Amino acid sequence: MNIRKPICDSHVHSHFSFDASPSASPDAICERAKALGMTHIAITDHNDVNVLFDHSFPPYPEKEAAQSIAEAKKRHDGSVCLAYGVELGQAHQYPEAARAFLDVFDPDVVVGSLHSLRGEPDFYSLGKEKYTDDVFPAIWDRYLDEYLEMLGFDGIDIAAHLTYPIRYARKHGCSADISASIPKIENIFRTIVKKDICLEVNTSGFRQGMGGPLPDFHLLELYRDCGGKLVTLGSDAHAQKDIGADFDLCVRKLCRMGFEHIAFVFRKDIMLTRTDT
Prior knowledge:
This protein is of the alpha/beta class. The chain has a single domain, classed as TIM Barrel (Alpha-Beta Barrel). It is 36% helix and 18% strand. Helix 5 runs parallel beside helix 7. The longest helix has 16 residues. It starts with 7 loop residues before the first strand and ends with a strand.
């Protein structure tokens, strides 16, 4: 099987994300994409809506980001398709604020994510006492309930890194056994299929020591069995060097699992690239 170089990365952060490399400008991202042989890439910076209310992180510089990415689009037109996107976090918690942002800035693609539960900090900053085999199952259960609620927010194109909390649970030595929650995960997958949302295969799990993507290949098989066909590849890169990381490996695996295409969303239009080319 001859797998081409990665052609589209649907989840990349520029320096407009507070936790990204200062050198990750839209132009630098486009140049890296072209060097990798990509034809399409999306800059999807963090806009966690709850930040407007709890001030837990620096706010997303909406106007500056939109203008800078629009200018980069023009400069790189014809050599790479750059999508102005956003990783819209916790949209369901403050739906009016989330909708107001989308109405004003109208991004090309919206990646929906859940980084924190209501009234809780981001999973990466939860105390280690929350990541024990006794405590974590209840947190994970709440996460799945809120993730399903997040999918109910109208406007999401891609459902991001479903197993995000597990990344941190395992770093704290928690087994993070999620076998009992398969029915809830199956319900999430069936909702994604029903709403024609793409499921993200987030390759940051390889870099984070998880040994696979988020969600892992076992859960991707469940998604397939639930009728899921639309998957995107997202590196979740916060620095140029990680763009497209581990894509070839994932494409080969997805092809063997029966996924025929990788999707790229641009203004509700879905571009499909075969996994077996």
